[in-house]
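Marked as duplicate of an earlier ticket. Keeping the data here for the record.
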Amino acid sequence: MWQLVIFVALTVLSYVLRPKPQAPVTPQPGNVEGTTVDSSSPVPVLFGTRLLTKTNCVWYGDVGTTPIISCGGGK
């Protein structure tokens, strides 16, 4: 019985003390950070999961935003 009480208390405590997620930043037209192409910049070697900014890239793709005008799912 006391194990159940400790489990519930620790679950509530971990829920209260968890880090709050940051609000995602929505891309705006003209606010997109592009990558650079430079032969003198170093190539990063990463282990694990990392967020890279200002990477050395040759092609990025078609950058733009498209508004959603309708929702689907109905007939």
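See parent ticket for discussion. The radius of gyration is 23 Å.
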